[in-house]
Write a sequence for this structure.
């Protein structure tokens, strides 16, 4: 077949009557989706967030369809986006310690919210303190989005090691501050282990030096904010804008708000601080441009879908969902503690649980393979610094049922037994010796292909059914080489 010939999915026609029928096209999409992980039912414990409530998908789809042609680029032409965004931001601010001065921006997701927080801090430091070589102080458990932001916007990363409990110490963060620090970041919680950093101490240290402090509550803010409204569970640690010294906070709605992707809110202490991150340009012959986000054209669908779901569930609904998830996490962590060969890392403050092996015969990557072969997806996390290799479980409301948690624990115990019988994957010492001699910056395509082949990745990017051997190799390689090879894996999946 001609490689450049259009595929069935790419064909179309100027006259719709001669193109594929709607039913055929939808059937083709359904066939493609059949190879994906399920997004409902609670068995995919990463990437997707399921409230387990009927009717939300239909409501969100109808809301998005209502504004399908609206472009949020120009809010004067489409004032509906202003009304919807003000309502969504106000709800987030009311939940997360905002004041009447609090301002916010609706973004496409957590990464964009974090990027904008860093960009705003860089500009604020330059304009108010004359900082020309900005730095960002991060716990080494901070999300990769902040490293991406530093790379894109030219900040130097100062990484502070977390303690044995996977929380960074406020004193260590304070010691890392310099006159060039533009932003300090704390996590609520950190993704890998679900623990909340000591936000109050970190924010106080930043404020004492006149430095902005951002709280990454992307994955946990909506959950923790509602959980503290429950009267029968312990309150989470303080983390939001009510904490003195916190100047911005990001919270994703498409996570524990259970709205369609992508929907996130970036909150600022006040509108003046928010303006440092806006872009405006009138020095060209076209229309005056002003952007509060990295996007120009902005689909209004995610905003409308988020607004509809937030209104439908409401504060009381989210409180109950958060309470159910909290109880499920307690049941899950207690149950894992009784499985021979497994151990929970740290003491999770939120709905994220990292599970490592405490028996050298039990490899968590093999456990993940065994679970996936039986319909459960647990996210592998390679070893880093003081955190051993583990599997990550995101507990959503869809899995927050005692019977479902009991089923998960039973499957996990059986998978652990099978993993013990199979044993850990082995890594060829010769491969590691060869890898140590490679220069990631000078790696040729042929060398990259050989390295990936040795790791078990096919020439077309095809991955094996069992990923433990691949992950074991990538984990054992020097980090710069792994970071060089990962884009090669992804690029092989795309033929264009």
């Amino acid at each position: 077949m001609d490689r450049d010939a259009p595929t069935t999915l790419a064909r179309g026609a100027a006259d719709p009557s001669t193109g594929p029928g709607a039913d055929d096209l939808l059937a083709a999409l359904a066939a493609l989706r059949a190879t994906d992980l399920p997004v409902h039912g609670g068995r995919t414990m990463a990437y997707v967030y399921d409230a387990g409530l009927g009717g939300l998908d239909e409501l969100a789809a109808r809301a998005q369809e209502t504004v399908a042609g609206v472009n949020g680029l120009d809010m004067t032409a489409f004032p509906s986006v202003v009304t919807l965004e003000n309502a969504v931001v106000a709800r987030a601010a009311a939940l997360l310690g905002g004041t009447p001065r609090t301002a916010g921006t609706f973004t496409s997701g957590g990464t964009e919210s974090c990027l904008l927080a860093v960009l705003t801090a860089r500009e604020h430091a330059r304009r108010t303190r004359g900082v020309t070589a900005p730095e960002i102080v991060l716990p080494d458990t901070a999300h990769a989005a902040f490293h991406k932001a530093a790379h894109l916007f030219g900040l130097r990363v100062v990484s502070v090691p977390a303690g044995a409990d996977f929380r960074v110490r406020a004193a260590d963060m304070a010691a890392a501050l310099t006159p060039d620090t533009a932003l300090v970041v704390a996590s609520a919680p950190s993704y890998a282990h679900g623990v909340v950093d000591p936000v109050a101490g970190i924010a106080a240290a930043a404020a004492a030096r006149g430095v902005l402090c951002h709280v990454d509550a992307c994955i946990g803010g909506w959950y923790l904010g509602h959980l503290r409204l429950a009267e029968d569970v312990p309150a989470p640690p303080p983390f939001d804008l009510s904490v003195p010294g916190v100047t911005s906070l990001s919270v994703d709605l498409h996570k524990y708000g259970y709205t369609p992707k992508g929907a996130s809110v970036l909150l600022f202490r006040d509108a003046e601080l928010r303006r440092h991150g806006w872009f405006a340009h009138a020095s060209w012959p076209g229309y005056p441009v002003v952007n509060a986000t990295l996007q120009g054209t902005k689909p209004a669908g995610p905003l409308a879908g988020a607004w509809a779901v937030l209104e439908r569930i409401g504060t009381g609904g989210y409180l109950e969902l958060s309470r159910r998830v909290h109880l499920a996490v307690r049941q899950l962590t207690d149950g894992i503690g009784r499985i021979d060969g497994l151990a929970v890392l740290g003491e999770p403050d939120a709905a994220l649980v990292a599970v490592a092996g405490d028996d050298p015969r039990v490899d968590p990557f093999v456990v993940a393979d065994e679970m996936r072969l039986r319909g459960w997806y647990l996210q592998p996390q390679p070893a880093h610094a003081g955190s051993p290799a583990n599997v990550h479980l995101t507990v959503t409301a869809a899995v927050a049922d005692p019977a479902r948690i009991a089923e998960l624990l039973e499957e996990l115990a059986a998978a652990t037994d099978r993993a013990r019988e199979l044993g850990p994957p082995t890594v060829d010492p010769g491969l590691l010796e060869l890898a140590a001699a490679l220069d990631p910056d000078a790696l040729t395509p042929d060398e990259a292909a050989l390295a990936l082949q040795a790791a078990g990745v096919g020439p077309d990017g095809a991955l094996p059914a069992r990923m433990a051997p691949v992950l074991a190799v990538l984990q054992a390689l020097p980090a710069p080489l792994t970071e060089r090879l990962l884009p090669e894996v992804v690029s092989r999946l795309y033929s264009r």
